[in-house]
Each structure stands twice: as C-alpha cells, then as structure tokens.
# Entry
Amino acid sequence: LDADVIINLPKMKVHLAGTVTLSLKNWNGLIPNVHPSGQQQGAHRIDLGQKFADLYRAVKADLTIVDAIIGMEGQGPHAGTPVEMNLIIAGADMVATDAVTSYVMGFDPMEIPAVRCAGTEGLGEIDLNNIEVVGEPIAEVRRHFKRPNDNPLGMYKGFTVYAQQTCPGCYANVRGALDSFANSGISMSEFLKERGEVVVVAGGLPDFDPQFAESKHLFVVGDCWEYFPTADNIREAIELAKTVTYYPGCAPVYIFSQLNTDLQKLAQ
# Structure
C-alpha cells in the first residue's frame, strides 16, 4: 500500500463466518476483486482464519482502533443485536488487539480462527498474560456476547437446507440469508401458504432424495456439489423443482444478501 501510515478501523461485532469480525477479518478489504470470478474477497471457506493470517503476514497496520462504542452480538453481521459497550480499543499489534477485544466480548481468543492462526504462527501476541493493557481493566468492561450460530439446518419450517458435505462458508452464508429473510417483516407462514416450500442444497448430499424438491423452490448453492458422486441427485431435483436459482462461487458470500433478496422477490 502506498501510504505513510496504515490505520485499521474495525467494528466490534460477532460474525457467522469467523465468530467475530475485528481487525484481522477487516483486513479482507485489502483484497482487490480484479479476477474475473470476483471471488477474492468473497472466499469464505473452511480456511478463512488462515486467509486472514496470511493477509496480516503480507501487510501490517501501524495502528488498529476498534470502534466498540456500540457492538453487535447474536446473528451478525446482518441479523445481530446492538450492544452498548462505550469502548474504544486500540493497539499496534492486530493480533493482540483482536485477542483483547474478543476476550472483552466473552470469547477465548483461541476460539477465533483468525486470531488463533495468526497467534500460533508468531505474527502477534495472543497470550493475554503477555499483553500490556492500559486504561479500563478488562474485568470491569467484559461481558458475554450472544454467540453466532451458523447452522442453517432445521431453523425455519418449510425452509429445508441440505448441506451435508460442505464447508462452513456455505453454512454461514445460507444461515445469514435465512435469518435476514425471517427478520424482514414478511410472514413466514403466509409465504409458505402462498408461495410454497423452499429447498436449499449445497455440497455432497448422500442422503438427499431428489423427489423432495418436487414442486418446490430450489436454491442451489456453491460450486462443489457438481464434484460429488451425488451430483446426479441434484440434477434430478433441478428437473423436478418448481423454480431453480443458482448461486455459483466458493463460497458464494454474496448470498448473504442475494438469497434474502430473491426470497423477498418471490414473496411479492
């Protein structure tokens, strides 16, 4: 980066992909989407924590300032709940800053994939005992944030998700989209009555019966389903479904908003 000083300005939030989103996850914004696939920023696969550690290895911030005045707990980043913290947390070491901030949020820093990867690779300090904290004592400002749940299976009646052999990327993206739709003000029961049931599939599906998708709205997520021996089951389901929508990518992080948008259009 062509800059004299680099300052990282993340918010204090939980996140379905990565547990929390602080300075290391915020570093995803450094990546330009110049490849025709446009997937560099959107690549939220099982190796997401390693991705952020590698970014930090390549480019380090001179200063990180976490906006923790109002945090977010629960189903972040799109369906979370505001938490009044009235804090600013700053440091020169992104790993240490994230370790302290995640602990203030009620997490063990080792629970956070990006912090764990960067810390164990020696890119910064993860041990709270070795981090000098000035200002308010951590114990006096710490609280336990509601944790994000990225599992979309069985969450909403009539919205069936099959994702048996897929990475956390598709899990989190689908869950986030369904949470956003459920919180959009649209009556789920009226949707099912007027539009019918929804089936979302991703990955390899050894237990999936294609007949289940018959006359339902089918949403096919990601790229990897085509590479499993069960791909023919999904192809048969595509022929039987009432409507079919594809979301290519690995993982297609854009469905956080796009699947929600498509469901809302379907509801109209």
About this structure: The first strand starts at residue 7 and ends at 8.
